[in-house]
Design brief:
mainly alpha
Amino acid sequence: MLAFYLTLCGLALSIVALAITLIVNVPIDNQIKQWTIQTLPSDWQTIRDRWEFYHILRTFISLIGLALIVGAALMPRKT
C-alpha cells in the first residue's frame, strides 16, 4: 500500500512541475522571444530572476517526484 501512495505522490509532483512549466515558464519564454535590444524592458532582470526561481523549483519538484516513483518501484512486494 505504501508503494501506491508513493507513486501517487510522485505523479502529483510531476503534475505540479508540468503546471509550473505551462503557467509560469512558457509565458516568460514567449515574452523573452520577442525581445530585441531596442525593446528590452527595464525590468528584464526581474523577469529573468522569476523565470530562474521557478525553473529551479520545477527541477527540484521533478526530482523529488521521480525519486518517489523509483522508490515505489523498488519496494519489495508482499506475496
